[in-house]
Design brief:
The protein contains 2 helices and 9 strands; from the N terminus they run αβββαββββββ. With 189 residues, it is an alpha+beta fold. The chain has one domain: Fimbrial-type adhesion domain (Immunoglobulin-like, Sandwich), CATH 2.60.40.1090.
């Protein structure tokens, strides 16, 4: 009889332990980001392409230009329209001056006109940002575009921008690593 009671108690303890383990397990949920856009029936989407998806910029602190000055060098990035069934319609919009590019990214903390250095690790550069410049102005002056503010009218045959490291106005420059990110998006005019 004692063996039966002990056996029943052991079974009850094991079941209680399993139940307790099941209660203690934590579910892990997932989040899905959903974006989209609803358009009228007569609209269409345009695609842009870059000649590269990575740029390596190098420079010396004494050779950096000031924020808001014209570019003196850097990396050329070519932007072209195309890649979908609406390419010709998109190029027509560009020819009509109805399509532009907007340059979006984390702005600097000096004047908010260039890309901030997102590198915050030890050894990161300070007082330095990455400027975006009009690279096809025809006069080789490569004028600055203000991040999150200015737009560049798209050309059906393509556009060129220049990226160059700059000294932030009012900030002390410290040499180190620089890392920034730029999103180029269409704006309908």
């Amino acid at each position: 009889m004692n063996k039966r009671i002990i056996s029943m108690n052991m079974s009850a303890l094991i079941l209680a332990g399993l139940f307790h383990c099941a209660v203690q397990a934590e579910d892990v949920s997932a989040t899905l980001a959903i974006t989209g856009q609803v358009t009228q029936n007569d609209t269409f989407s345009c695609s842009l392409y870059l000649n590269t998806d990575y740029v390596q910029l190098n420079g010396k602190t004494e050779g950096l230009i000031n924020q808001n000055d014209n570019a003196t060098g850097g990396a050329n990035i070519q932007i072209t329209i195309g890649g979908n069934s609406y390419t010709n319609k998109c190029k027509t919009l560009a020819d009509e001056g109805k399509l532009a590019y907007k340059f979006v990214g984390t702005a600097d903390d000096a004047e908010g006109t260039v890309l901030a250095n997102n590198d915050v690790t030890p050894g990161a550069a300070k007082g330095i940002g990455v400027g975006v410049f009009v690279g096809d102005s025809g006069n080789n002056k490569f004028q600055p575009l203000r991040i999150n503010q200015d737009v560049l009218t798209a050309k059906s045959w393509g556009n060129t921008i220049v990226l160059q490291m700059v000294k932030l106005n009012g900030k002390e420059v410290t040499a180190g690593k620089v890392q920034s990110a730029l999103t180029i998006q269409f704006e309908r005019l």
